[in-house]
Amino acid sequence: MPEPIAFDESQVDVSSIDFSDLEAQYHVPEPEHSYEHFVICDGAPIAPEAKAPVLKKVLTKLFSQCGKVVDMFMPLENGQTKGYLIIELENAAAADKAVKQLNGKKLDVKHRLAVNKLPDMEKYALNDNITEEFREPAIPEFRSHGYLKSWLLDPNGREQFMLHHHDTVGVYWYKKNIQPEEVIEPRAHWTSASMKFSPKGTYLFSFFPGGVQAWGGEKFDRIRRFVHPGVQLLDFSPTEKFLVTLSPEPIVIPPEDHPARAQCLFSAESAGHKLVIWDLQTGLPVRTFALPPNLEKQQSMPWPLIKWSFDDKYCARMGPDALAIYDTTQEFALLDKKLYKAEGIMDFEFAPAGVRLATTRKNDPPETVFSFWTPETPNQSARVSVVQLPSRQVLRTVNLFNVSDVKLCWQDEAKMLCCKVDRHTKSRKTTFTNLELLSLGEKDIPVEKVELKEVVSSFQWEPHGERFVTVSKLDTPNPNIAVPDNIVSFYDVEEAKVAKQVIKKWLCYKTVTKTHANQIRWSPKGRFVVVATVTGANGDLDFYDSDYDGEKEKEQSDKVKSNLKLLNHHEYKGLTDLAWDPSGRYVAGWSSTWRHKIENGYRIYDLVGMLRKEELIDGFKEFEWRPRPPSMLSSNDRKKVRKSLKEYAAQFEEADAMEADAELRELILKRKRLLQEWYTWRKEVIAKLKELHLTQEQAETREEVIEEVKEEILEEKEEVIE
Amino acid sequence: MMRPLMLKGHDRSLTQVKFNREGDLLFSVSKGKEASVWYSSNGERLGTFVGHNGTIWSIDIDPETDYAVTGSADFTAKLWKAENGQCIHTWTLESPVKRVEFSPDGNQVLIVTDQVMGQTGKIKLFDIDHTQNAQPSTPKLEIVNEDGPASRFTVAGWSYGAFYILAAHADGKVSKYDARTGELLGSTRNQEMVLTDLQFSPDKTYFIVSSKDKTACLYDVDRLSLLKRYTADVPMNSACITPVKEFVILGGGQDAREVTTTSLSEGKFESRFYHKIFEEEIGRVKGHFGPLNYVAVHPKGTCYASGGEDGFVRLHHFHRSYFEFLYDVEKTAQATQQFEIEAK
Q1: Which segments of the protein form a coiled coil according to its record (chain A) (predicted)?
Q2: Is it true that domain B5-343 has CATH number 2.130.10.10?
Q3: Mean pLDDT lowest for which of A11-20, A104-113, A246-255, B243-252?
Q4: Same-domain check for residues A430 and A503
């Protein structure tokens, strides 16, 4: 510790100290005449002098919305207005209001107003903050994160998956029966909530209290941070261009002169908003929204709040009685500057792919289409509408009666749309479901109706196919929940020709009754489907092949091509969720500690339902397969692969066997080593005991066996022999 | 495996089951007030020891099956004549008795007392006088827990030759004391939660400790080093080492108070068999309706008994396939050994 310096106040000459720096710092300017109520307006039309009064009148009217216009100065040059003007408003509050409301206001197609407060202009422009010369902004050096799609280059085409348990998250290569290989060392505290892959698998997103972060590349480096405090929900646009986050905390903009303001990416208009759309490439917010008042008070949030067209060109969100459709290529401006009015709109869905209508010409790009439904009103039926964008042309409406709810289920190629209509009887005592199936590709979009007696709780289209599976249940259920009363139904198309026109008819060719099953998962490649029971206390999985290459069961209808076969059945008590891998080769089921503490861990089955891998992990939270972008192979390439499948299979089997061999050899060596270590140790111990005369043989000599025989007479009979 | 014998005699949860040295008799104690003696061959009850006034936590039998000792929550430990069930001595202690065990030669007994109601947990050693009924009432040696209630003794046992006392603590620590001087010779901590049981190998040179942290650890006595670790998915209440086969048996299950919220199969009330050397799970035996509180194996390795929270003792006799089961590596090792012996 240094010696304390002797300090005597009386020795200091105060007058000799230079206080000028402090004075400068704490100088309070003399109050001067305030210009706080002046605004400068740029971007006004350049008009000849003669028209100036008219323009003045228009602008005065406009600015009067914000407060009384005291004076307006419009400079002239060469007999023309200069395109800017200075406006004096009644007070500073009116000036603030003008900036907030009219800055960026479009006067007409060519003219967009820029409104700023006069003191702001001075602050930025006069204090030498702006030089005459243009200085290029410093562009931060490009940092490469490696090839973001590197995992797709795996020579064996293996799948990656993410495991989250306790606070640790790891990403692994799936390796059939053997222990998965770590892609990266599992990281502790990687996320404060859950983890999520983006839809094409490029990024892995983690949460932290201040927002979300994107990770990617070979080593999962941090690529970008999206600061949105308190964020709880996350969603993506289908092509990974945009990211949507929602936080229950409204955005707070730090005050103008606060140092945190420079870090804040949101502009003043975003204050109080909760929903943010981000550009994934730049990491900047592109649009923010306040929550509609009807959602503010709701306990459970419908998610996603913003839905996207298949190509990310449009996105839309639902409000009361209208749909706001935004054009993402026009800086998220409202399409045609107006809402899409739909009274009482309940729900909407974009087609998940481009739609080829009967009227679409061969070389035209596919159409963007969305569908929505509106409920019954006293003088109108409930209806489902299919609308084309950007033309807003209604392609088809379906009128419905006695409707309680409608779910819109698009087939993944958008060739079909199923409206699952839950209807009630006139007494409103029981409900039942109708399926209205629209074929988008055919002329006039025909609707086929399937009427059911039960309520359908789950409906799933076969990917790339026209078959579907439903789970349904009678509305008068057995009060005992232990009695299974769900019905799983399998549907296929029966094609009939009526007057030269092919009419599609869906036929239920197989039902499984009295089951608890409630989840349907089609393989992403179609054909195979897993029907699972996920109830928390009891779980099982049924693996079905819908094109089984064998004899068809008698009860299945001959009118359809499908041949359904139950391949495998597994019980999985703890099951809380399940998912196919993107290639459709494996199904993962897992038991998450978020739901319960039973059998936490995961299992991986192959497509025919053979258990390949099981791991029980304490505190297991979630599992996710890494998604893949759609395949780039043409149908010809595919055919070629299919043709030479046998050759490939032989190669793969050989590689598998070699790898398994290596693994097995290692295991055997490890066991040998353990065995040897053990017996060497035992030999030492036994030798030591011998020295101490404590060996067990000694003890055993003292033992004697006493056998006790107990006889019991069970029955006695006396018979007289003649 | 054969159909198990169900020993129904206790109306409360079992706390400990134990074979005598020959393995012909099985002793069991429960949260009821009686101890029972059974024939291990047929499950017939031979008799009971009546006299305690609370849960009996522990029982042990001396090597000659002359005496049995029991420790109870009524603050006493009792010495019984094994052949007629007569209580010949009662030690009165200052707190509940959690564990009793005879030394390998039968001349001493250790008593573990609980650390409750302001009392410090202790391990007390008493001499046993085989010539008369009355026993010395002052302990020969007292080992006192000095680390506070979080680290209290839960169970303890004797090593080979009665040289050492091995004690398990509530914080997952295992410590080794000199049985003559009471000196602490070493301690180690490899488990996270309460240690529930400590059982020795037949020659008492190594031992297994089960814990509520869902694991069991195998230690050697001399170096007190961790040899193996067996990981399960539910809290473990007991573990034992099988003679003849290189296995260990673990018993446990979801805690009793959580069981009501889970169905039968979810509680995982199973005995689990692990390969002792490879640390791999080999099999499970179902049957109990509640957690397993104790597992004990016959000294000749021909059967094992499990005592459950459900009040039943299940006695399983091993089938031939149990004895024939070997890993391939073990088979080759045996073959080479055989070959070497023949060569000599």
Answers
A1: 650-719
A2: yes
A3: A11-20
A4: no
